[in-house]
Amino acid sequence: ASCVQHSLVVRDASSLQLLQLYTCLDQIQYIEWSSDSLFILCALYKRGIVQVWSLEQPAWHCRIDEGSAGLVASCWSPDGRHILNTTEFHLRITVWSLCTKSVSYIKYPKACQQGVVFTKDGRYMAVAERRDCKDFISIFVCNNWQLLRHFDTETQDLSGIEWAPNGCVLAAWDTCLEYKVLLYSLDGRLLSSFRAYEWPLGVKSIAWSPSSQFLAVGSFDEKVRILNHVTWKKITELDHPATIASKKTIVYKEVEKSPTVDTERLSFPPTRELASSLFSTQSKYDISQVPVSLQYVKPVADRANPKVGVGMLAFSADNCFLATKNDNIPNAVWIWDVRKLKLSVVLEQLCTIQCFQWDPCQPRLAVCTGTSRVYLWSPAGCVVVQVPGEGDFQIVSLSWHCSGDSMVLLSKDNFCVCYLEREEV
């Protein structure tokens, strides 16, 4: 699904054939599929309205108007039959049922990075709350929206919460001014508290491994600390130095070259195909000889949100690799072997890393840098793929299909779908 101003366009994922076209009341600012792909939600934040469309019954539609309370966020519940709307100033979360048309309210939600999270099986929801100048977490049962647990957290300013994939442990972390990661059980017991240091800026990002065995914590001190699920103690620290010295680490460096053109094929005026090849540059990977010095950017200390520390990290689906980005070295992706807890590969790009995401089915990483190329890494090696098409298509984000056979590449105003061929076994 994609939106163009007031219109919602639904296409077949394999053929891109147009299936449905819906028209909303105003410009669409957010869309989300229900878990069973039977409904799609369109949020019109400026109007405080959510419109819901049915794929099975195109004539059916639903409109939810929050009125004077306004709307700043909207999402589906895991069952795909309830919608959670967050009103302006985070006064409350309204839970709307599409089946019974009933309404429930959750008061005092906290405005933070990640304040509403569901367990992977969809049974429980955790909500970060702020009341009486204190942080709290409430855990709800999703089938009836009853409160299961409500407890306060030992945080100054709770920044986010995240469930482990197995749904047994909830991680909560404090503001960047206070290094603190708290781990709670489903019944609200504090299992462990982790603090790496005291005074400098603290936690910047966290990620659970798919097996729930490891919790990776990215910090402003340019390190990733990995905690284990037995004692919740640190088992290793992963540094991000500007110089790669280990001979066991493979460094792939992106290089550009101008294409060679056969002078006998030159003609005037040149054909469109020849003109595009004359002025385009090609890219490929070379393996650099260690030691390698990476481009290091010194952060500006007197500005808010400094470009420093590990801001992006993600585990591969098979739990074997961890990809990280240190914002001080914006052109590099670091790929760690989780089994050995060692640095395996560094991808050194020509431009700043905008986004990376693992294939949901196999250890294959897709990277984009704001250019018209997408970069793929797997244990077998690296490849650069030029997106065909006219004009300057700058990829700023990407998303894999759940099957791993295709991915959506997004620019500021356009998108395209990249299909990957599977090798015959």
TrEMBL record:
InterPro entries: Centrosome-WD_assoc, WD40/YVTN_repeat-like_dom_sf, WD40_rpt. The gene is Wrap73. This is WRP73 protein. Transmembrane segments: none annotated. Pfam families: WD40. GO terms for cellular component: microtubule organizing center; MWP complex.
